[in-house]
Amino acid sequence: MRHHPVAIALIALATASMMIGCASPPPASSQVGEQEVRTGRISRIEAVQIESDQHMGLGLVLGGIAGGVLGHQFGGGTGQTVATVAGTLGGAVAGQAAQNKYAQPRPGQHVIVTLSNGVGVGITQPPNPDLHVGDSVRIEGTGAGARVVRN
Fold this sequence. Notes:
single chain, alpha+beta, 3 helices
């Protein structure tokens, strides 16, 4: 049984798309409803490098498609299907690795805030030149989307 190359490319694209959907958390901006506002004072600010936020994307999809098309060239019948799936997965992994290799880190800051209740919280975020040790601040958002903002 011979599979059509377009069908194989669609299978590869669907597989890569599922991998993207499973591996990427929703962005913090998609959270709706009430959020607790935490306040305190900045006790320390350190310059850091933030890793690229291109964790999943074009490299994975293109690698998956190319790997699926390449894998489809080998074998016949069930063996060809297995080679196509293996090529899709291998191509997706290789494409993502290539994308990550060239992704550049960007400058950031790690801000330690001592909350009103005495607990220390560390937030890593893009640089904000308006923040200084001793400033009265609030922490907006939660998790990876949390940011320190002056009151």
